[in-house]
Amino acid sequence: MRLFGEVLVTMLVILDPPGNVPIFLAVTQRLSEKERHRAAFMAVGTAFFVISLFAVGGRTVLDYLNVSVPALQGAGGLLLLLVALQLLYGNGNSEDSFEVASPEQRTSIAMVPLGTPLLAGPGAIVATIVFFGKAEGTAEWFSVVAAIACALSVSLITLRFSGIVKKIFRPAGVVLLARVAGMLLAAIAVQMIADSVTAFVRAA
Fold first, then answer.
1. Over 80: is that where the pLDDT of 35 sits?
2. Which of 30, 66, 110, 198 registers the highest number of CB atoms within 10 A of its CB?
């Protein structure tokens, strides 16, 4: 249960559903409401597919490259720290980062950039590999899967009802939520780096 909560909180902070609302609305503003809803489902489906690929084959790639889990954990912490800085300083959540799409582009924008790298970005991928590496036994493995599925479900609900979310929080409120998420993610990143250093010291 503790692993489930850790994965859920980490993935929610990385995915940053409220912070993705302005980007989603900007990229899909030329789409009809029905097309926007379809794009939300397709984006989350794409993110789940990408994350699942790395969850299943990520450890095999690490063994082939002879990279240890502590090394990956440290690298993941650094990547998460970069994502946190982007959230804190607004470099990763600008509506101008993506070109506004036409209705003919609705399928492609749902996959890129909405599905990846907006949702299934480097931070989410690295965190997934690390958590699956930490999971011991079938029960913990399913806990990680369930937590990731729940986090993506929250993202889906947020994108699906993005218009309502924007009216409730207003643009300033969405920015504030993104900043808070950035602070939480920075703390998680520092903890991952500390755990990596501890593992290296114990192995020495």
1. yes
2. 110
